[in-house]
Write a structure and sequence with these properties.
With 342 residues, the chain is mainly alpha-helical. It has a domain at 80-269: Orthogonal Bundle (MetI-like fold). It has helices at residues 7-30, 72-107, 113-120, 128-140, 151-182, 185-192, 197-233, 260-266, 276-304, 321-341, and strands spanning 40-42, 45-48, 241-242, 254-255. It is flat and about 120 Å long. It comes from Paenisporosarcina cavernae. InterPro entries: MetI-like, MetI-like_sf. Keywords: Membrane, Transmembrane, Transmembrane helix, Transport.
């Protein structure tokens, strides 16, 4: 494919492929439980216990361990598939909801579009994390009697709710863009010839906006990853938050899976003493977000193409130099004859 000739797209694609493919391969090779290290020995003496700091010279503890001795790199790799695939599912479902509604707003509901946008506009100024937290808390926070749903069901509910929350804003953006295209001259000509709005959407609007829809999908994917990080700080983790209600020996809330929001939010309190614990998943989030941005940039360059300035043609002389010299000599001879006659 020609798009893979764009270096930005290739770099972003390889980063995401590394995390996704590496997550499944890592689980197949080492299982779904990270390696646990209780202490580091040097010369037969224990020199460091968990949380063990990162050791570049030791590939087993490249990103260190958590407070229980579990390898941090293994946890990040195991949780990559949950985080990235869930974010992709949220963004995809959001676009599947918003794109048809947006085309309807831009074509069928042109008179009502103004007051519908007026209802949607205030949501631009309210952080989506607040709505997500309020709606997901009853689903993701473990009650005292335990969860009544499975982990997969909770992930599905979270994906659906997070998609619906922002779908009206995305639909409004698509509707405004579709309305601009709907008033172009070639679409007015198609309407004059009897084309229905449904045909105009299918044959004209969607092909014209296909590239922008793909870019918008990438932007929604980035926004979803950011909201995951925010919910992690608020201790709402993907698939549910495991809560201990033991009044004497209760553990802090933790993630059921090793998804990145749980690794980031659950270890944020160790930012001062063991900064590698929250920084590891934070860097993973940043890498994937940067990869998506690079893919969007590469796709945009692929669609727009490189504008090549045409080479200037060499000026072509209709008369060669010999002819010019011969004419000059003739002119001099005639001039001399005229002077003699005078």
């Amino acid at each position: 494919m020609k798009i893979f000739k764009q270096p930005f797209f290739v770099v972003g694609f390889l980063i995401i492929l590394f995390f996704l493919l590496g997550s499944f391969v890592f689980e197949a090779m080492y299982g779904n439980e990270p390696k646990q290290t209780f202490f580091i020995e040097e010369n037969g003496r224990a020199v460091e216990g968990p949380p063990i700091s990162p050791r570049i010279s030791d590939p087993v503890h490249l990103l260190g361990t958590d407070q229980f001795g579990y390898d941090q790199f293994a946890k990040i790799m195991l949780g990559a598939k949950y985080t990235i695939l869930a974010a992709m599912a949220v963004a995809l479902l959001r676009m599947l909801i918003a794109v048809p509604i947006g085309f309807i707003l831009g074509t069928y509901l042109q008179k009502q579009r103004a007051w519908i946008n007026g209802l949607i506009d205030p949501f631009h100024y309210v952080p989506m994390t607040i709505f997500a937290y309020l709606m997901l808390y009853p689903i993701l926070w473990e009650p005292m009697e335990g969860f009544s749903t499975t982990q997969f069901e909770r992930i599905v509910y979270q994906v659906i709710i997070m998609a619906i929350i922002t779908a009206p804003i995305v639909a409004s953006l698509i509707g405004n863009e579709a309305n601009l295209y709907y008033h172009n001259e070639y679409i007015l000509a198609a309407r004059t010839l009897g084309a229905s709005r449904r045909r105009i959407i299918r044959k004209h609007l969607f092909p014209q906006m296909r590239e922008k829809i793909f870019v918008l999908y990438g932007q929604q994917l980035v926004e979803t990853l950011i909201v995951f990080g925010h919910l992690g700080l608020l201790q709402l983790y993907l698939g549910g938050t495991d809560v201990s209600y033991d009044p004497l020996f209760g553990d802090p809330p933790k993630s059921i899976a090793y998804e990145w929001a749980g690794l980031f939010g659950g270890n944020f309190r160790y930012l001062q003493g063991a900064p590698w614990l929250p920084l590891g998943p934070a860097i993973a989030f940043a890498l994937v977000i940067t990869a998506v941005a690079a893919m969007i940039e590469g796709y945009t360059r692929h669609v727009n193409g490189n504008v090549k300035i045409p080479k200037r043609r060499k000026s072509t002389a209709f008369v060669n130099e010999e002819t010019v010299q011969w004419n000059q000599e003739q002119f001099k001879e005639k001039l001399q004859l005229l002077q003699k006659e005078k």
